[in-house]
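Need the bound structure for pyridoxal-5'-phosphate, inputs here:
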Amino acid sequence: MSCRDSDAARAAANGILNIDLGALARNYARMVRIAAPAGVAGVVKANAYGLGIEHVAPVLRRAGCDHFFVAMLTEALDLRRVLGDDPAIVVLNGLAPGAERLALGAGVVPVLNCLDQAIAWAELAGSEGRRLPAIVQVDTGMTRLGFAFDEAAELRSRPQVLESLDIRHLMTHLASADDPHSLQSRQQIEMLKQFATGFPGVPLCIGNSHGIGLGPDYHGALVRPGIALYGASAPQVEPVVSLSVRVVQNRSVPAGVKVGYNATFVTQRPMTLATIAAGYADGLPRSLSGRGAVYLDGRRLPIVGRVSMDSTIIDVSDLPEGRTSPGTLVQVIGPDQTIDAVARDAGTISYEVLTSLGSRYWRDYVGSLDGVP
Ligand SMILES: *Cc1c(COP(=O)(O)O)cnc(C)c1O
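Answer from helper R.:
Posting the output first, comments after.
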């Protein structure tokens, strides 16, 4: 695309999603400082939480990251093409039966979540005549993925499986790390340590973003932050994402006018309304209907009526007359409104807002990597 074309495409887009790769790199460096001496992996599942794995992963790599976690093998295959041969790529969900050879071909490290996954990986190792790397996940009380506590003994009782595996880490995932008062995190650590007595010398891999904040007991030798890298849900990080959406149409209406699907809002006074070009298909949750706001010139512009698929109606009555016209950008995420604030208004979490941000926005990757080693 020529410059001209891209300027036109940017002007035509329903919104501008700005992704600050410098802030991403600085957030990674922050995690490295906080987690030291533990190593810091990058969790880049779900297209790097929606921000674009082909842009995000190389920046993390340049910032020193050499362990990348994705959820699924398909993501690992894509990521291997982005990153080349070097860094470790770990698949959290492990491998579906029959996917082992594909994983081996891409040099993937599977998380082994159960005995069957371990046996299948070990069998492939046997046929290859070498040990294959793996991470063993232990279910310490989240009941989502991982070896049940009593399966440890079963795994240990199969020396031919263990001999075929190069177990890099014992891993667990904290269920309540975002609640520093929860006793569950401590219980999970105790359980992991007990499991680990059967695997002397194998390092631990524990904390997610919130786990890192809980302190060294919750780190192990390798931590796995995701959301903190992307500038949300953690106090010590800087924002990475901002989002502005274009106004499509303005209108001034008298009192008594019905607004949006099912007329859930009726004007009580004369108002100036604007319709913006993003809706739930672009990741503005429908639960923001009649709740939440966007911003312009530091003013809060409430969402009125239902959020539609491709558009949302806002109240611009507080702005000077004529301030918005078709093409004007209003801020959805930015200095006036964090992702976490949007998520709160929508009754959800920043993770869901981030990973839902739509594919119709123009994406600007900005920010300086100066100072990134
Ligand atoms: C998604 C995920 C992470 C990253 O969690 P954040 O809360 O985003 O830091 C780490 N570990 C596992 C197992 C995950 O599924």
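Comments: The CA atoms of residues 152 and 195 lie 7 Å apart. The pocket of pyridoxal-5'-phosphate is lined by residues 43, 45, 92, 173, 208-210, 224-228 (CB under 6 Å).
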